[in-house]
Design goal:
- The complex is a heterodimer of chains A (483) and B (494).
- With 483 residues, chain A is an alpha+beta fold.
- Chain A has helices at 62-74, 172-189, 229-248, 294-302, 308-319, 323-329, 333-343, 348-366, 377-388, 394-407, 411-418, 426-439, 441-448, 454-465, 472-482; strands at 5-7, 10-23, 82-83, 86-89, 99-102, 112-117, 123-135, 139-141, 150-152, 159-165, 201-210, 221-226, 256-261, 266-272, 282-283, 290-291.
- Chain A has three domains: 5-300, no CATH class; 306-418, no CATH class; 426-482, Arc Repressor Mutant, subunit A.
- Helix content of chain A is 39%, strand content 19%.
- In chain A, strand 1 (5-7) and strand 2 form a beta hairpin.
- Chain A is elongated.
- With 494 residues, chain B is α/β, with parallel strands linked by helices.
- Chain B is 38% helix and 13% strand.
- Chain B has helices spanning 8-16, 22-40, 48-63, 105-112, 160-167, 184-190, 224-234, 252-256, 278-293, 309-324, 342-353, 356-369, 375-395, 421-425, 433-437, 466-480; strands at 43-46, 74-78, 116-121, 173-178, 193-196, 216-221, 264-268, 297-301, 401-405, 441-448, 454-461.
- In chain B, helix 2 packs antiparallel against helix 3 (48-63), helix 5 (160-167) runs parallel beside helix 6 and helix 10 (309-324) packs across helix 13 (375-395).
- Chain B is globular and about 65 Å long.
- The chains are: A alpha+beta (483), B alpha/beta (494).
- At the A-B interface, loops of A face helix 10 and helix 11 of B.
Chain lengths: 483, 494
Amino acid sequence: MGYVLEGSTGAWEVVVGLEVHAQVISESKLFSGASATYGGAPNTHVSFIDAGFPGMLPVINRECVAQAVRTGLGLNAQINLLSRFDRKNYFYADLPNGYQISQFAQPIVGAGVVEIELPDGTAKKIGITRLHLEQDAGKSMHDQHPAKSVIDLNRAGVGLMEIVSEPDLRSPEEAGAYVRKLRQILRYLGTCDGNMEEGSMRADVNVSVRRPGEDGFRTRCEIKNVNSVRFVMHAVEAEAQRQIAVWEGGGEVEQETRLYDPARGETRSMRSKEDAHDYRYFPEPDLLPLVLDETWVAELKAKLPELPDQKRRRFCDQYGIPFYDAGELVAEAAIADFYEIVAKGRDARLAANWITGDFFAALNRTGASIETSPVSAGALGELLDLIGDKTINGRIAKDVFEAMVETGKAPGAIVEERGLRQVTDTGAIEAAVASVLAANPDKVAEYKSGKDKLFGFFVGQIMKATAGKGNPALINEILKQKL
Amino acid sequence: MSLTDLTIAEAAAGLAAKTFSAVELAAAHNAAIAALNPRLNAFITVTPDLALAQAKAADEKIAAGAAETLTGIPLAIKDLFCTAGVRTTAASRILEPFVPPYESTVTAKLLAAGAVFLGKANLDEFAMGSSNMSSGFGPVENPWKRAGSDAKLVPGGSSGGSAAAVAARLALGAMGTDTGGSIRQPASFTGIAGIKPTYGRCSRYGIVAFASSLDQAGPLARTVEDCAILLAAMAGFDPKDSTSAERPVPDFRAAARRGVKGLRIGIPAEYRMDGMSGEIEALWQKGIFWLREQGAEIVDISLPHTKYGLPVYYIVAPAEASSNLARYDGVRFGARVEGEDLIDMYERTRAAGFGAEVKRRIMIGTYVLSAGYYDAYYLRAQKIRALILRDFTEAFAKVDAILTPTAPSAAFGMGEKMDDPVTMYLNDVFTVSAPLAGVPAMSVPAGLDAQGLPLGLQVIGRHFDEETVFAVSGALERAAGFSGVPAVMAGGAA
C-alpha cells in the first residue's frame, strides 16, 4: 500500500498531475529578436513585437523549436513533425497583445515518459501527456507606487515549454521527485536552467483525492504557479487534506483554481469554475503550421547529451559503483563530469567514496557549488594518486583534503610542506612496534591470552608513535610477527 | 494636360525626360489636396512638407541617373500602414495620438524606390466597412455625382479615402488593403482600378491588422498598368511576415499588355444573383463579349459555395478582429481613459475609443469563438472556407481566370443602407470569396450606369498568378475605353 491520508472516515489516496512551465534557454525570445536573458533593467529587453504594437508580427525562433524538440526527445516523447500555434485570448496588463501565442490542439511534442525513483529505491514511470511551446507574459508589480501598477515586459514573449504529466503521481514525495527529475533532465539537456527561485521553472499542481481502490477520478483543483519543489510537496498535502475535509463533511469539491500560501501552509481559492476565463482559442493566423524536417530531428537526437538515467547505469557498469552512489554522482551533469575526471585511471570506487563523502561535505560546509569548488577534479585526483602510491595513508589523506579545501593548494605541496609522507621504512616501524610492545607488557600478555581486540589498540599506539604517517599494512604485518 | 491628370507611367516618363520635376509634381498634388480635401475628407493626415522633401530627394536621384519607375511618384497611403514618424490612426480615435516608430514593409519598399507620400488616406475604422462611413475621422465623399444630383455618395470602403484621392486626382496612386473587398469595391465605386494580390504576395508587417488570414495590401490607380507598376514595387518575401511567400516577383507591367488570346475565362453561374440590377448584368455580358472578341474562350463554371461566402466572411473576419484589437487597451500606446481599476480602465478606454461598427464586430467575433459556440460558428466557417477554396481549385483546373461584377450596385448615397448592417454587408457579396480562398482579384472600371456612376468588373485568378489577372484586366480596360471622370476633381470637373 502506497501513500494514504487517514481521514475521519477512513483512508484516502491522493492523485496528482503537474503542468510544469519551463523557460526555454535561448538567445532571443520565441517570436522576436529581443534578448531572452534574465535580468536587465525593466523594459530593456522588449521589441515592438513583444509590446504588441500595431502591425507587428511574430516570427518563430528556430532555436526555441530545437530546444522543445530536444526536451521532447529527452522525455522519450513523440515528436510531432506537424504542429500549430493557437491564440489564447484574455486581457491582462502584462499580456500586451491581449492573447498568448500557445499550442492548443496540436502540440510539438506528444506522449512521453519520465522515470522517478521512490524513497524505497524502486522506480516508477510517470506519463508525459504533451509538451507545447508558448510565450511567457510580462510582470506586473503592484508595490512600486502607492496608486499605480507598473509593468516590466522583459519576460514578455520569452519561450516557455509547458510540460503536462498524466495524473500518475500518488503522493507529495512522488510529486517532488517528479519535479526534481524533470529539472535534472532539462538541465542535462541545457533546455531550461530549472531555476525555480527566478521563476524560470514553475508548476501548476492538479490535485484530487479518492478512496483506495476507487475507479476514476474525483473533481480536481489546480494550484497555480508553485515555485519550489518543497512548496509543490506542501501544496499537494495541504490541498489533499482540504479536499478530504470537504468530502468527509458531506460537501462536494468544486473545480477551481487555487493559490498556495507558503506562509500559512494552505491553499486558497483564486477563481471558481464560473469565473474561469473563456480563452477563445483559435489558430494563430500570423504563423504557418510548424513543419519539422525528420532529418533535422534525427540530427538533434544524435547530438543529445547522455541523460541522467543512462549515465547512472553506465557508471554502475563501467566503474562498478553502487546504484545509489551512481545516482548521487549523476545528480548534476557537472558533478558527473567531475567524477569521471577523478575516476579516470584510478580506483573508481575510491573516487566515488571520496566525492560522495568528504567532497560533498566540504561543498555543503563552504556553501560552494561544483562549479565554484575550492578543490578541482585534478587536485582530488592527485590526492587519490598520493594514496595509491602509498605516499600518504587514508587517514592523513583526510587531513590533506581539509587543507586543500582551506588553502586551495595542491595535495603534493601540502604533504611536502607539512611532512606528511607515509613512513614505509621497515626499520622505523619495527622500532615503533618494539617500543609500544615494550611499554605495554600487561596488554601484550592479555592479547596473548586471547584478547584479540587489543590488536587495534596496538595499531593505534604505533600510528601515534609514527605521527599518523605509518603505513597501515606494514604496521599490521610487523605487529603480527612481533606478537 | 495637368500634372495631376497623368498616369503613373506618364509621370515616370515625364520625370525621366525632365519635362517636369518631382517637386513640381508633388507641389501640384499638394495644391490639389489643399483645395479639395476639406470637402472630400480623403486624407486623415496630410504631409505636404514631407512630400516636398521626398520629391527633392527624388529629383536628386533622377539627376544622378539612379531613378526607378516610382521615383518621384506622389502616392496616398491608407492610414492602416504604419509610417515612421507620421501619425497612423487606422481611422480610429483609439489610435488618434499614435505615431509609429517603425515603417511597414510595403511603404518602406515604396520609399526605397523613391516614391513621394502625400499623406495618410481615410478609411473605415480599422478597415471595417464598405462605405467609409465608419471612420472615426468623418466620412469620405465620393468625387462622383449622380447625374443631376448633388447628393453626397460614399466612395465605398474600406480603402475609400485612397480611392477618392486617386479618382479626384489628389494622388497618382494609392496604397490600400483588402480583407473582404476593401480595394476592389471602392475602386469600382470611384471608377479606378485596384488589385488585391494573392495572400502572401505582399508583407503584412507594419499594417494594422484587421483579419490576419485575409488582409492583403494592394494598389489603387487609374490604370491597370499603374496598378502593375505599384504592385511590382510592393510585392516580395519579407522575413518579418511568416505568411509572406518566398517567390520571385514577375513583370506585372508586361503581363498587363499580354492580351487574352487563348485564355479560358470562367463565368460562375452562382454570381447571377436574385434581384441583381439589370445594369450590372448587362455590363457583365459586355465584359464577356469584349474578352471573347479578343480571342478568349468563355467557359461556364460553377462555384457552388459562393452563397456561403458572406456568412463565412462575417464569422472569420470578426473572430480574428476580436483578437487582433485586444491590444488596444490603453496600457502601452494610443488613447487611454483612466478608470477605477484595470478592468474599468479597459472598459472606458475601449468604449470611448472604438466606434459602433468596430464594437459590433468585436462582439460578433468574441461570440463565435466562445466556448459552446466555437464549433457551430468558427469551426464550421473554417470548413466552408476550405470548400470555397476547393471551388476555386476545381474551377481553375478548367479556366485561367474568372470574370464577375465587382459590386452589386454603383456607389450609394451617404445615409443609405445604414439602417441595417446586413444590407451593408451585402456589398461584399462578390468580393469576399477571393480573400477567403487567398486568390488574387482585380477590379477594372468598365462603364457607367444610367445615373452616370462608374461600375467595375472583377477578374479573379489562380494563386500567385497575378500576371493572368493583369492580362485579362488590361484587355477589359482597352475594350471598355473607360474615360469617365468624377464631378469633383483637381483642375475642375470635366
